[in-house]
């Protein structure tokens, strides 16, 4: 009887131990024990912050020149990779230039098999939380309304990278931010200075037009490739010095990779210069300017690191302040490079069929034009009124439903929904929403539908 | 008048003023030795900005001032990389691949490791090492024959403390 009891107790304890091991908490890099609260919808997310202030009228609504310049019969879709709808047939100026013909008469052919909007979840009328670029980028990357803009100021609320690294345990090289310029504190969007999160959980970041542009090549391309045997003593001595200095968290100025990650990132930079000199960087075929450079190097990052979370910004359509024709051309090319990026992702075996791409502008543009005329006598648009707070979002990929939500008269969702949506994709929705830093009106787009 | 009566008066006035104005210098010795003053790490809490870091590092390694153009380019590149340790290490290895460095040779380092360690602390961190720090580095360099001046300098220049003043 007594031995039977012992056996029962033994089996009971074993079962508890086994159960605990199976469903027990994950030990996160933060040192906390934390159970994941939801299943992962996809292993990778790529977020495109598109593309410098986009009017609803020329993008999701497909009205081309009808709403902007009052040209009747000139409606049509100039973003064939993102949205459905026929291209305009009248006054086409946004395409490629054909010698001997008026500028821009040849639209760039669609890259994706069918428009991304038809493959996934579209929110047609989303409320942006600001009519400005930097606050808009802050909103997309933090899930809360940016509260500060100044010279070299980090976001005040945690970024999506910090949420994922802290609550989901991602490594620094799992999270990347690629900016297309060093203005507007853009390079600081890889991490907030929030003391609950902050640089310990920030993402890796490059500004490809600078890092891999002529400045980068001048300053860094002659760097020595050190062997591990050489690196080890350097890291040991640096580590000793850093421990001795004991930098306070509030004084930290940079995100940190592990020694191994740092070695890998440095090797990536060196290899990229080599590939550049050999002409081996893949570019969107008809892209041009900083946006195309940014997307091309995003491709290199995706190939090398297969990041769990990558965000990049595009901004060339902001030329709309003074050149409406240029804006149309940039919008068409931004659509082209997003299509290229999605196809590029499908060429990476580890990411194909296991990635979600989210595309959303950081802000819209005005309803009424400013007085600046361009080469076609078309008026330009700034971004400061109510119309500039109207945007859209497109999400495509694994486990994303095929749905079109809301319309011009029925806005659904907020731009601050994007971070909760990403948290939802990675199964840490409750933790992120419970952090206290997310817009209280925001929610996952999966739940909105 | 009076040139004749004026001359003696002038001479007397000059002699008197010379006698009054000259005093003997007194050397005061308080018995205190001259001491070189260095920073302490505890007082370093201001981060160097990119321009300061780059200009100081370049001058440190080459004993020359960096050109404004190269400073501007380097500043932009540093700002364009998220992990500043990656940026610093890349920059340093780029410098160490150039010809115009003015740094001690490895042989000089090994001839007197203690002196090298003290000089390196003063050169980069503007302070003397504590006894523990000095001993750690002496032992580390002596026990690892593959450690070079370049490695030591890279560790110092990429250290957190070097980023502050």
Brief write-up:
Helix content of chain A is 35%, strand content 10%. Chain A has helices spanning 2-23, 64-69, 116-119, 133-142, 160-168, 208-211, 214-220, 228-245, 259-277, 289-305, 324-346, 418-425, 429-433, 445-448; strands at 26-27, 33-34, 44-49, 121-127, 175-178, 204-206, 309-313, 355-360, 390-397, 403-405. Chain A has an eight-stranded mixed β-sheet with strand order 6-5-7-3-8-9-4-10, sandwiched between helices. Chain A has a two-stranded antiparallel ribbon with strand order 1-2.
What order do the helices and strands come in, and which of them pair?
The complex is a heterodimer of chains A (449) and B (165).
Chain A: H1 2-23, E1 26-27, E2 33-34, E3 44-49, H2 64-69, H3 116-119, E4 121-127, H4 133-142, H5 160-168, E5 175-178, E6 204-206, H6 208-211, H7 214-220, H8 228-245, H9 259-277, H10 289-305, E7 309-313, H11 324-346, E8 355-360, E9 390-397, E10 403-405, H12 418-425, H13 429-433, H14 445-448
Parallel strand pairs in A: 3-7, 3-8, 4-10, 5-6, 5-7
Antiparallel strand pairs in A: 1-2, 4-9, 8-9
Helix pairs in contact in A: 10-11
Chain B: H1 3-21, H2 50-62, H3 68-79, H4 84-96, H5 106-111, H6 113-125, H7 131-143, H8 149-157
Helix pairs in contact in B: 2-3, 3-4, 6-7, 6-8
């Amino acid at each position: 009887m007594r031995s039977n009891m012992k056996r029962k107790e033994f089996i009971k304890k074993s079962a508890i131990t086994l159960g605990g091991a199976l469903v027990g908490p994950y030990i996160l890099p933060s040192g906390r024990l934390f159970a994941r609260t939801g299943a992962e919808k996809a292993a990778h997310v790529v977020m495109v912050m598109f593309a410098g202030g986009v009017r609803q009228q020329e993008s999701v609504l497909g009205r081309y020149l009808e709403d902007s310049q009052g040209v009747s019969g000139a409606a049509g879709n100039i973003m064939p990779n993102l949205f459905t709808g026929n291209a305009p047939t009248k006054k086409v100026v946004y395409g490629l230039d054909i010698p001997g013909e008026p500028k821009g008469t040849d639209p760039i052919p669609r890259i994706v098999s069918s428009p991304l909007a038809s493959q996934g979840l579209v929110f047609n009328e989303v409320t942006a939380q600001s009519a400005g670029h930097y606050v808009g980028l802050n909103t997309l990357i933090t899930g809360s309304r940016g509260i500060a803009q100044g010279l070299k100021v980090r976001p005040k609320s945690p970024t999506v990278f910090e949420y994922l690294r802290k609550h989901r345990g991602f490594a620094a090289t799992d999270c990347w931010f690629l900016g297309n310029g060093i203005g507007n504190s853009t390079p600081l969007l890889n991490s907030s200075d929030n003391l609950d999160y902050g640089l310990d959980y920030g993402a890796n970041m490059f500004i490809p037009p600078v890092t891999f542009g002529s400045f980068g090549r001048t300053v860094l391309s002659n760097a020595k490739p050190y062997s591990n045997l050489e690196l080890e003593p350097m890291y040991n001595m640096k580590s000793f010095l850093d421990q001795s200095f004991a930098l306070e968290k509030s004084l930290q100025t940079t995100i940190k990779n592990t020694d191994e990650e740092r070695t890998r990132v440095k090797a990536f930079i060196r290899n990229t210069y080599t590939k550049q000199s050999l002409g081996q960087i893949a570019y969107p075929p008809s892209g041009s300017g900083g946006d195309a450079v940014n997307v091309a190097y995003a491709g290199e990052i995706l190939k090398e690191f297969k990041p769990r979370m990558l965000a990049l910004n595009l901004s060339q359509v902001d030329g709309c302040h003074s050149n409406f024709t240029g804006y149309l051309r940039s919008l068409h090319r931004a659509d082209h490079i997003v299509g290229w990026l999605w196809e590029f992702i499908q060429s990476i075996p580890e990411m194909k069929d296991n990635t979600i791409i989210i595309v959303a502008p950081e802000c819209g543009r005005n309803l009424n034009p400013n007085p600046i005329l361009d080469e076609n006598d078309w008026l330009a648009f700034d971004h400061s009124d109510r119309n500039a707070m109207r945007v859209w979002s497109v999400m495509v990929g694994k486990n994303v439903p095929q749905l079109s939500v809301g319309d011009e008269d029925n806005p659904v969702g907020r731009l601050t929904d994007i971070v909760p949506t990403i948290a939802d994709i990675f199964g840490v929705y409750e933790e992120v929403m419970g952090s206290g830093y997310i817009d209280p009106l925001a929610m996952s787009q999966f739940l909105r539908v | 008048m009076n040139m004749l009566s004026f001359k003696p008066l002038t001479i007397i006035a000059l002699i008197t003023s010379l006698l009054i104005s000259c005093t003997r210098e007194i050397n005061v010795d308080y018995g205190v030795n001259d001491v070189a003053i260095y920073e302490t790490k505890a007082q370093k809490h201001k981060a160097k900005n990119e321009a300061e870091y780059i200009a100081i590092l370049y001058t440190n390694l080459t004993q020359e001032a960096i050109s404004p153009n190269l400073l501007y380019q380097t500043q932009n590149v540093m700002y364009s990389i998220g992990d500043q340790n990656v940026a610093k290490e890349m920059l340093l290895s780029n410098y160490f691949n150039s010809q115009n460095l003015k740094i001690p040779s490895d042989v000089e380092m090994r001839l007197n490791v203690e002196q090298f360690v003290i000089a390196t602390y003063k050169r980069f961190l503007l302070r003397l090492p504590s006894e523990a720090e000095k001993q750690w580095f002496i032992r580390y360099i002596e026990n690892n024959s593959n450690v070079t001046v370049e490695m030591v300098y890279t560790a110092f220049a990429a250290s957190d403390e070097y980023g502050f003043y």
